[in-house]
Specification:
Length: 369
């Protein structure tokens, strides 16, 4: 009877153990399904975006989570193409930091494809409500992205509000960002860093490094930006509309440094053009118009081509004050870089030409005949 009681107790112990293991397995199998349903239901409820996450996998012991086949649409854009497509997002969490009431994580985003269109506003738009990151962070457990990595991304940007229309594509986009915390660091002005590299439309090589404060109320950053060997023919339509020059060859290089703090920004853009080629006018036209056109092309080439030992490269100042005090960090950076690119690519008219110079051209024409 004693042995029978012991066997019964052992049998009950095995039943409890096996039941617990079975429960863990069931929870493990159902949890990704439940989490995926929750994420997609939240996307369905969003008033501005519509989307779907195709799959979710978890490794609870390792603290690793993956989202697969993500598609996000902007319901107000009127575009059929998704705002965002991502092959995979992997999140690795350091469980040890949870005991300190914090979350330390690494995020890897593989092959994101972003399509952005800036359109003219035909009707008064409702007042934009930007998310105050610091305000939102106060309601959360402090989160620090130890590292954010983006691999082989694509960004296509069309600005239909500019004249002429400005568009650019970045491919082979790789990003490494560190120090993205929702917890303020009072002893460091620029606690976060980012390194970005990409190939642009026109086969230019883009490299940018920046230090910034992700929690600052106004954009606060210090960045260095380089664009090398951009083939100008890829932007010939833009240059022709802006400067009435038909560019058929040449490469463009841009070196930029910009810093922003307390609502102000300062910096410069240094453009250099190599081997500029411009289509001549009709060969039959050898008169005044041809001379003026060729003179303008020569001046632009001489100003922007790579400087010799005794020359100083053109340096375009980039400075001022942000008009919108609530401007987001990355909106500010993109806007400043876009403006620096356009102003450097197509130099502004400096009013150095006056009507008296026409007589000089006429005199040269007469003497040349």
């Amino acid at each position: 009877m004693v042995k029978s009681g012991k066997k019964r107790k052992i049998g009950i112990g095995w039943i409890i153990l096996l039941s617990f293991i079975a429960l863990v397995i069931i929870v493990r199998l159902l949890l990704p399904v439940i989490a995926l349903h929750y994420i997609n239901s939240k996307l369905d409820e969003h008033p501005d975006y519509d989307g779907n996450v195709g799959g979710l996998s978890m490794s609870l012991i390792a603290g690793s989570y993956s989202l697969n086949d993500i598609i996000i649409h902007d319901v107000h854009s009127g575009e059929d193409e998704p705002l965002l497509q991502v092959d995979k997002i992997t999140i690795d969490i350091d469980y040890g930091t949870l005991f300190d009431g914090k979350i330390l994580a690494e995020v890897v985003i593989d092959r994101p494809n972003v399509f952005l269109v800036q359109k003219p506003v035909e009707e008064p738009a409702p007042e934009d409500v930007e998310v105050d990151i610091q305000e939102a962070a106060d309601d959360l457990i402090p989160v620090t992205l130890e590292k954010l990595r983006i691999n082989e991304g694509i960004i296509r940007y069309w600005d239909l509000t500019s004249s002429p229309v400005f568009n650019v594509e970045l491919r082979s986009l790789n990003v490494i960002a560190e120090g993205l915390s929702t917890e303020p660091r009072e002893n460091k002005l620029l606690p976060a860093t980012v390194r970005i590299s990409a190939i642009t439309s026109g086969e230019g090589r883009l490299d940018m490094t920046a230090s910034f404060d992700p929690l600052a109320e106004v954009p606060t950053f210090d960045l260095n930006f380089e664009l090398q060997n951009l083939q100008l023919i890829a932007y010939s339509h833009f240059i022709e509309d802006a400067a009435s020059l038909d560019v058929v060859g040449g490469t463009f290089n841009l070196h930029t440094e910009i810093a922003a703090h307390d609502g102000f920004f300062t910096g410069y853009a240094k453009p250099i053009i190599n081997d500029l080629e411009i289509t001549p006018l009709d060969p039959k036209d050898t008169g005044l118009l041809q001379r003026i056109y060729e003179s303008a092309a020569t001046v632009i080439r001489d100003i922007l081509e790579a400087p010799g030992e005794e020359q100083v490269a053109l340096r375009v100042p980039v400075e001022g004050q942000f008009d919108d005090p609530d401007l987001g960090l990355w909106t500010a950076i993109i806007t400043l870089l876009k403006n620096a690119f356009i102003e450097a690519l197509v130099p502004s008219i400096d009013h150095s030409v006056h009507i008296g110079q026409v007589q000089e051209v006429i005199k040269e024409e007469v003497e040349g005949e």
